[in-house]
Hints:
The structure holds 2 protein chains of 2 kinds.
Chain A: E1 2-6, H1 9-16, E2 21-27, H2 30-33, H3 39-55, E3 61-67, H4 73-76, H5 80-83, E4 88-91, H6 95-104, E5 109-112, E6 114-124, E7 127-132, H7 148-151, E8 168-169, E9 172-176, H8 178-188, H9 192-196
Chain B: E1 8-13, H1 17-26, E2 35-40, H2 48-56, E3 61-66, H3 77-94, E4 102-106, H4 112-129, H5 133-136, E5 147-150
Parallel strand pairs in B: 1-2, 1-3, 3-4
Helix pairs in contact in B: 1-4, 2-3
Amino acid sequence: MITAVRKPMEEILEFVLPYKRILLVGCNECVTVCAAGGRKEVGILSSALQMAFMKQGKTLDVREVTLERQCDPEYVEQLVTEIDRVDAVLSMACGCGVQEIARRFKDKAVFPAVNTQFMGASERHGVWVERCQGCGDCILGITGGICPVARCSKRLLNGPCGGSTNGKCEINPEVDCAWQLIWDRLKMLGLEKRYEEIVSAKDWRTSRDGGPRRIIREDLE
Amino acid sequence: MEDFEPLIVAFCCHYCAYTAADMAGSMRLSYPANIKIIRVPCTGKVDVLHLMRALLKGADGAYVAGCLDGDCHFKNGNRKAARRVASAKRLLSEIGLEPERVEMFTMSAGMGERFSQIALEFTDRIRKLGPNPVHSNTKKADPPATNRQTVQKGDRPT
């Protein structure tokens, strides 16, 4: 999922300070799962914003809406009934959701309420970790299902660097060395030979280096 | 300020604090009428959202009263509640409100005296803090109506 964390209140308040009526839009997908921008978080932020305004003797009319998905135009369209009643939109979705609202409602100011973080998995309740960088050319098939692009601090493709100590990365003793994990897993699977195969330099054009990416599925268009 | 009577919401666990309130009654112990009790099946059910909404809609303070550490009927609901109260405190600080307006307490079902004592102490604390500035600054304006709408799963745009 795409993970996110709420921005500091100070920053959010600065966004909405000039307005009297705002639309606070959550998303039922990734940000709900990572507890950053679902219906509950919308309610909490709405309460906090209203109280911050009331404390200063002002009022802020907050309309709370949580869409099924904020990155799909079909769902964003549901805001048409609300959008004229507000001065600005505050989105609790990831950057994709914020931009979809900005694209659809061009004359309305849209602000992000969360900082989008990374594509990750839930390690345990309340802890999310980075697992994928969307490099566009998946190599998990030759690395034992553990991604060195997302999980090695240096994105090395042919074994660990000298900073790997007791299975941990030199950047932080709490970060596993991805290549230690890969080696352990390949050994467990009896695939040690794969470790010996040299992986040639990665073509990063399939990643962000090739500019903004696009997927076109003609069968679905 | 001296005649200020705070409005306090207490989220009380069915298995301990709520029963302790009953016990306080049986023991003929008095506690301030400022406390409005909301019974919850477990304090693990109480969320930051409930505390924030309570303060937004007119409460001067709110607390969660759960089981003693290790005695939760549902294993660890009271510990979860304590973490959520801590989170609510951080959020209140961020918007310039006193974090002391929310608190977590623990007690057993037999501690009628402790229930009454905590009610007394918390009321005293809020009385000293004064009225919730959120409401005193907006005079007697009605709390804002919350316009909440959730587009349910399966709903399709028309």
